[in-house]
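Pasting as-is:
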Amino acid sequence: MTSLPGKVVMASSNAGKIREIARLLEGLGVEVVAQSELGVSDADETGTTFAENSLIKARHAADATGLPAIADDSGLAVDALDGRPGVYSARYAGADATDEQNIDKLLRELVDVSDESRGAAFHCVASFIMPGTSQAVVAEGVWRGTILRARRGDGGFGYDPIFRDPASGLTGAELTPSEKNARSHRGQALRGLVALLQQQFS
């Protein structure tokens, strides 16, 4: 890989995620477009790890559009639950579960777990792939914290209201978007991916 085309597809329809990666890629002069804008549907996430699902999504978008693609896959791994919900974080309480339902299920499962044993980590793997190739650029981020017994905060999404960041003492839902991006697993992974791309294409 010697030159980066001027347009990259993001294997996501999340507007916030698109803006975030676009800002990070500004130095490379790259336009980032959502796969939904190009008529690409979501890939079937059949992998058993975050890395596998990230690559599945990136490859699906690249093959469908003929453009280089970026994807990420992330989730919450709780120590006391042997890493669950993991890759099933978004559908922990069922295929069409809401964030609220997923949180409720997690809190029920941890009701008898002591405060000292409620460690957890958000994981994210971000991938970049060129169409027609099997080679990928991959970066990972991990954000460790603890799971609270009740929700706090109105921001964020997913498990943010019950995930306490140890550095600030705030939940993911109490941090501002910029504070969260500076700490989060996704921010770490995307910044790491951009740094690797800058090394290869600058």
